[in-house]
Design goal:
Helix content: 40-55%
Radius of gyration: 19 Å
Order of helices and strands: EHEHEHEHEHEEEEHEHHEE
Protein name: Sensory transduction protein RegX3
Distance between the termini: 25 Å
Number of helices: 8
Strand content: 15-25%
InterPro entries: CheY-like_superfamily, OmpR/PhoB-type_DNA-bd, Sig_transdc_resp-reg_receiver, WalR-like, WH-like_DNA-bd_sf
Keywords: DNA-binding, Phosphoprotein, Transcription, Transcription regulation
Strand order of the largest sheet: 2-1-3-4-5
């Protein structure tokens, strides 16, 4: 996932960027409100999440959030030392999707990033008129939960279908193991890792396309769309 980090403190940004990169994020660092807005021009490749610090040197962070929301629907998480309820409500009213107060736990921040990203992806799917996903010879019928390869039906278990449908939401994007476990199994990573590996292996076998689901070592999995 591409993430836009808006933070004027280079030391803080460098440390946080390193942590995010280790968890599979492609981080772009903007040091001011203007840099952030320039990075969010319509012709850009797009970001999955904007992590917005409110203490910026050129513009008030709340003002930047309002401008971002007018420009894009990309989820915005505000990061600030302001912990009062009024500040949080003001940020949310301007269009922020979540609010993290400094000092924060890195694990909590990662969880919030994935949470707003999931909500955004689910809203895209819900608001879409598409009822199927086509990935080369693979056809995924979302309403009927049916899958076929080159016209031949493939029988999947409920969790196998849920896993495939999740990865197919964003072909090429790496889904972290913890994120997949949370979304498909509705539980924590503890003790469920082997179950995920077994389901991935089963999908590769049933679809007869071992390269469809790629393992990203130390991070998770991504779906590689095959040629038609």
């Amino acid at each position: 996932m591409r993430l836009l980090l808006v933070e004027d403190d280079n030391h803080v940004a460098a440390a946080l960027s390193a942590v995010l990169a280790r968890h599979g994020f492609d981080v772009t660092h903007a040091r001011s409100g203007e840099e952030a807005l320039q990075a969010l021009v319509p012709e850009s490749d797009g970001f999955g999440v904007v992590l917005l610090d409110l203490g910026l040197p050129d513009q008030d962070g709340y003002e930047v959030c309002g401008k971002i929301r007018k420009r894009t629907s990309t989820p915005v998480i505000m990061v600030t030392a302001r912990s009062d309820v009024r500040s949080r409500i003001h940020g949310l009213n301007l269009g922020a999707d979540d609010y993290v107060v400094k000092p924060y736990d890195t694990g909590e921040l990662l969880a919030r990033i994935h949470a707003v990203s999931r909500r955004s992806a689910q809203e895209e799917v819900t608001g879409s008129t598409e009822t199927q996903v086509l990935l080369g010879p693979v056809r995924i019928e979302l309403p009927t939960r049916q899958v076929s390869v080159s016209g031949t039906p493939v029988q999947l278990t409920r969790k196998e279908f849920d896993l495939l449908a999740l990865l197919a939401q964003r072909p090429g994007v790496v889904f972290r193991r913890e994120q997949i476990i949370s979304e498909v199994w509705r539980t924590s990573w503890e003790g469920t890792g082997r179950t995920l590996e077994v389901h991935v292996a089963s999908l590769r076998s049933k679809l007869r396309m071992p390269a469809l689901i790629e393992t990203v070592r130390g991070v998770g999995y991504r779906l590689v769309a095959p040629a038609a």
